[in-house]
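anyone seen this seq b4? input:
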Amino acid sequence: MATPKTVSFYTLGCKLNYSETSSIGRLFEDAGYQEIKFSEGANIYVINTCSVTDFADRKCRKIVRQALRYSPNAFVVVIGCYAQLKPKEISEISGVDLVLGAAEKFRILEYIDDLSKATDKGMVRAGEVQEAKNFVNAFSFGDRTRSFLKVQDGCDYKCTFCTIPLARGKSRSDTVGNVVENARKIAEMGVKEIVLTGVNIGDFGNGTEVIEGTRPKKDAMFIDLIRALDEVEGISRFRISSIEPNLCTDEVIEFVAQSKRFVPHFHMPLQSGNNKQLRAMRRRYKRELYAQRVAKIKELMPHCCIGVDAIVGFPNETEEDFLETYQFINELDISYLHVFTYSERPNTAAAEMPNPVSIEDRRKRNKMLTILSEKKRRFFYENHLNEVRPVLFEKAKERGLMSGFTDNYIKVEVPIKESFLNQIRPVKLLEIGDNGQVKIELKEVTEMVG
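predicted toks r here
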């Protein structure tokens, strides 16, 4: 095929996927390709997939059809977790030309010249997930005022509901030196905030190559990484995307509480507030430890934002179990929830468990926790009204507006002022608007906090 000149990307799923899409985009750019908007009809479409839920699988199919409506003769490449888990299934989707697994996606340019529309079935280049044993660094740039910086990949945990180890392989991570170097590069690009991403970033420190039976000893821990990053000039904020409660140690919490650049915001997956469910999920903590972590954070940082992941409708979750979870979360001093409805995933232990919860009950429980999340967020926002806090501004989705987050993750939105974009400015939090975001008053720089 003639070398395509245009490429477009569509990313599904987590911040880690966004960091990897951006890095793959730079590979294309270095090879002479022009990245254009999805709707502009590219020669090549790259779809980076997630496979946390069945919805993500269906979404992938929809995006393939959409790409071909924009550019019927385009070559469509599918990468990401779904591509590793179900390569054959994806290759049979009409219009898909290439499927790349976890170990192959960063070598995408090696396969482009072999693409052909001569067959009805896409070409699959997806080896066993064990082949994904090297760490490939990645960070996002160009689409917002913050960058997602990948520091770790894969997972050694065996949670019974999760397909991520099957899709991304064993835990491996970058070195402290490489992460710091990438952070400095991002600072030189003018980015003000870096979000640290990975599958299990608290497990940072495993070697860059995973070889069965010869696990390398950790040269550095997550605490060593964040201490080093706190010294990087040019970055105003570091944010930890998500960290397991058993790995969010007192040492990590105490460091963030006094650090120069790490903001008061933790996101810790809980999944269930019921110890019976946590055991069945093979989580590595009990709810008592989770409560201790929240209490420690709030003791040192009363203004800190704490986000929580929760799964409803896990097999054998009775109504009493769910109500115990609901009450536990209700009593926690947390700020918001990400609520996931359990869905059976092939090749996971949970998919074989007895006593599945009805779809109707799963939906009802999701709605209850979603409403609780809205109440928690509003209460957290209300507790900080009339305070002056720093906001990093960026363009909002709605035309003529700019939005941003305070250091402790309160979202604000105001009419756009171009000179404020990608700037951190102090604002006074006035009241909560109808859209749930906080109305503000801009303050003098001397009044900035955080």
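Residues 359-382 form the longest helix (24 residues). The CA atoms of residues 3 and 132 lie 28 Å apart. kinda curious what u guys think
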